[in-house]
Amino acid sequence: MKERIELTADLRSTGKANSRALRRSGKVPAVIYGSSQNENFYVEEKAIKKYNTRAYENALYTLKSDSKNLNSLVVLMKDVTVHPVSQKPLHVDFFAIDLKKPIRVFVEVRLEGKPIGISEGGLLNVVTREVEIECLPTEIPEAVTADISELGVGQAVHVSNLNLPSGSKMISLGHLTVAVVNKEEEKATAITEAAPAAAGKAAPAASPAAAKAPAKK
Question: What is the pTM of this model?
Answer without folding.
Answer: 0.73
